[in-house]
What we know:
The protein is 25% helix and 22% strand. It has 112 residues and is of the alpha+beta class. Strands 1-2-3-5-4 form a five-stranded antiparallel β-sheet, covered by helices on one side. The radius of gyration is 14 Å and the shape is globular. The mean pLDDT is 95.
Amino acid sequence: MSEEKDCIFCKIARGxxxxxxxxxxxxxxxxxxxxxxxxxxxxxxxxxxxxxxMDVEDTAxxxxxxxxxxxxxxxxxxxxxxxxxxxxxxxxxGQLVYHLHFHVLGGKPLxx
Length: 112
């Protein structure tokens, strides 16, 4: 429980840290990244505290999450020209917050 208590995304989910939620269905929420790397940079986050992709037990959750990513891209109007979905796993993969989340970036050409 300590991980969940100290997790920034869990704090946002509980309303302890303010954020601009652009979507919330009780299972997932979507916020704008506070340090955007593109004109449109959103984070798609499950409410359940799942530290990494390697900890996912409910594989159907990933399907629902990607359906939401599609919806988010359409809502941001980045779906036609293209967008990037980024997910980092563990420290060597660049994961900074140990709560499952996906970045959706678009609104400009994205270099490699």
